[in-house]
Design goal:
eight-stranded mixed beta sheet, alpha/beta, 15 helices
Length: about 475
Amino acid sequence: MTLLDLKLDRASRISLAEQIRLGVAVAIQNGVLVPGARLPSWVDLAAQLGVARGTVKAAYERLADTQLIVSSRAEGTRVANHVPAARPAAERARSIETDLASAIYQHFMPGPAVFQMGVPASDCFPDTLFARLRSRAARDEVEAPASYRDPRGEHELRREIAAHLALSRGIECKPSQIFISAGFSGALGVALRVLQAEGRKAWVENPGFLLSRRALEIARLKTVPVPIDEEGLDVRYGELHAPDAALALVTAGQQAPLGPTLSLARRVQLLDWARRADAWIIEDDYLGELQLRRRAAPALASLDRLSRVIHIGSFSKTISPTLRLGFAVVPPSLVTRFDEAVACLGSAPGPAVQMAIAEFMRGGHYMRHLRRMKRIYGDRSNALLAALEARGIEAYPSGLAVVVRLPDGADDKAVAREAYAYGLAPAPLSIWYCSPSTQRSGLLLGVATSIERQLPNACDRLQSLMAKFALAGVRVGGACGAWA
């Protein structure tokens, strides 16, 4: 078995998994690892490097995807017999850009870990019930005559979503206004195609979800960062700096990541701006009714009497992101354009998963599940805050996360990278900001994955890592943003 001498830089912007992948790939391309050479198992290499097993596994999976290595139960992991030729310099340069971009995703998809954001608690889901519903729906799909399904989504699910939104989010809409999508990103992509605002300006929250911001940039919109304060989006700032923007992307129910709910005065102001500017508002209702500290605020779309709001939700936080199931509620004036867009450019996910969710909702299981999870998440949030306070760590709740304050300029990305090796997955707050000049340092700790029995060890480890970097005097650029 070949011994690998890999050097990892934990302060690098490149994720540990990507550093391992690059190290092995270079060794293969340079002939250090010859075709057929056996590599350590990802378990053994993880122990050797002192990183999480999932980190090495992710690196090996990417190497297998590029056909540099092959794996089998009988022979283990080996270098492929026919190694792809080295890429030209220009292609390698593009690959480096891709590698840097992929490092962003590591902050959100590090694998199952304590403090991981963006995923629900898998230990509390009624999986037996839901598995039965999915199995039945899959069987019905296979037995049904072959046909093209409605690209807008199954009518049964759209009807259930419309009824649910009327009760939980105050949105009055018809099933014909609802379009089922591949998660939030799928709905956002269709909305941007329909609005056709290329070259125009778009308000984005600062701080805000960087992948949504990047989606607008890919759609060739010019993003205008609008600061967040205790009332949410500073609409007046947006009106002063970009009154002619084509759209605004907001998390009105509970701002991500700082947590304030967009106040009623700001909601009225935002809707009035959209009317005067003939602009659109895309509401990312990422938490839905899972607002833990108060009764869930109504959706912004519930106040929309002028048909300017496109409301987007998903089942990722409430059921599972593996479903890749979301939806958009569009104003009546846009229904025909959405019909054409989904028919020509993309359609809803397969009918089996949709029908399973529809039955889950129709039987009342979804509402019971949400009520139960809200209690559980509230308890976990309180337990996490108490554990942090006991260790002198300043923090405050923000939806399904807890925000840990760090000194201005502290390198939260380095703390997060180091934590991954210990099975912890805090997300650095600084990457949510639009520019270094507005950054504030902090850590976002997911509540759903913070199981109470794991908190003492996890918080002790987090405290030691924060102390380590504070003593090292690690610094980044200036910071002058606003905290909620």
